[in-house]
Prior knowledge:
Layout: E1 12-22, E2 25-35, E3 40-45, H1 51-59, E4 66-71, E5 74-75, H2 81-87, E6 88-91, H3 103-108, H4 123-135, H5 151-165, E7 169-173, H6 181-196, E8 200-204, H7 208-214, E9 217-222, E10 225-230, H8 232-235, H9 238-245, E11 249-253, E12 260-264
Helix pairs in contact: 4-5
Amino acid sequence: MVDQGSSSAPRVHAKDLTFAYEPTTPVLSGVSLDLNGGEMLFVLGANGSGKTTLLHLLSGGLKPNGGSVQLAGEATELLAPRELARRMAVVPQSLDGVSGVHVLRFVMGGRYAHVPTWGSPSAEDEAAVQEALEQADASQFQDRMMGQLSSGQRQRVLLARALAQKAPTLLLDEPTNALDPEHQVAVLDLIQRQAQSGTAVLVVTHDLNLTSQYASRVLLLAGGRVAAQGSPEEVLRPEILTPVYGSRLWFGAFPDSGRPIVLPRGR
C-alpha cells in the first residue's frame, strides 16, 4: 500500500472544524483531530453528537463552515475527486439506490480512480476486486444483485468496495452495524490488519466494547465538541462516559486483557 506523506506527519489533520445544517444550530464546534498511519481511531458519542457529520467533513462530502481538513498535507477541498479517492476510502452506514446493481460491478466501482476515464478495468483491477471480496467474506455474493442481499451482507460488500480502492486512509461509519457477532469480530480483525499494514483507520461506532478491544485511540464527542480523547483505558471510564451517556451503564474489565467493559444496565 502506497503511503501518502511523511510517516511522522498525520495522514489526516483536522483543525477547529465547525459545521451547521441550520445557521442557528451548530452540529460541530471547534473539533480538531489527527489521524496517523497505522492506527485505529474510534469516534464515539451519543446520538446527534456529530459523529457522522465529522466523517463527512473529513472525507470531503461536506464543506466546513469553519476550520480545515488536510489529507497528507493538502487541503481536501483542493483535491479532485479521483485523487481524493486514491488517497481515502469511505464505508458509509448504507447506500441508497443500488438495489438494482450487480455486486461485482458495484465493488469494481471502488476502482474508478485507478481506471482510465474511457478505459476498461485491467487485470490488476479485477484482481484487486476479487481480493477485496475475499477479505470481506463477500465472494459468494458477487453474482447477485445488491437488492438480493441482507443488510449484513450488503455491509460486507460496502467494505469490499472500499478495500478495492487500496487507499492509504480508510474511514468507516458503523462498519459492524447489522452484522452478527462473528462477522463483527471478523470485520474488525480485517480492519485491524489494514491498520497494521500502515493504513490510517477511523471508525465511527456506538459499540463501546468493540472500541475497547480494537481502538488505538478514542475520540468522544458530546454536543458537537470533543469531550475526551485518549486510549480506551483513559476514555472508557465512569466519570467520562456518564455525563455523555447517562447513569445506566455498568463498568467492568475483560479478565484476559483488563480492557474496559461497558454495558447498558436495565432497571
